[in-house]
Amino acid sequence: MLGVAGLIVFGMSGELRNRLWSLAHTTEDPLVMFRAEVMAHAVSVGLDHPFIGNGYGRDYLRAALKIKFPEFAAQGYVPHSHNLYSELIAGVGLLGVAIFIWALASAGIQLIRQIRTRAHSDKERYADLGLLGSLIAFVIAALGDVPFYHHEPRIFFFTLIGLICLRLRSKKAKPDSVS
Q1: Domain-embedded: residue 178
Q2: 20 to 30 A Cα–Cα from 39, which one of 50, 121, 152, 168?
Q3: In which domain, by residue range, is 85 found?
C-alpha cells in the first residue's frame, strides 16, 4: 500500500520527478553546484587557519565567506556548507577534524573487534551491530548534511559515542565465560 501511494505521489508531482531526474545530471543542477562551491570555500577558509580553524558555528563560516569570497556571498544566503567535515575544517581546523575522525574510527574499529572476537549471545550481537550501523549511518549522513550547530545531530552523536563506550566498557568488566 505504501509503495502504491508513493508511486501515485511521484506520478502526480512534477517537481518531485524533476528533482529525482536531476540526480542523473548533477552538474546541471544549480543547487548541487552551489553546495559544492560552498564546501570548497569552507575548506579554503579552514586552510587559512589549519590548526585551530576560523571558529565554530554557522555565523563564523558565513562571516569568513563574506570576507574571503565577497562575490560568492553576494549570490545568496549561505547558512552552512551541507557537509559536516568541511564545516569542521572551517570551524576547528585540521586538528579538530583529525580528532573527530579518530573518535569515529576508534569507536567503529573497537565495535568491529568486539563483534568478531567475543562470544556473544544473539541479543548482544544485535546490539553491537545496531550501534555500528548507527555510527556508519552518521558518518555517511555527515557527507550530505549534518549541521553540528543544530542540537539534534549533536545530541545523537554524543549519545551514540557514549552508548558505544558504555557497551565496550561493559564487555571488558564482565569475565568471558566459555559454555
Answers
A1: no
A2: 152
A3: 25-173
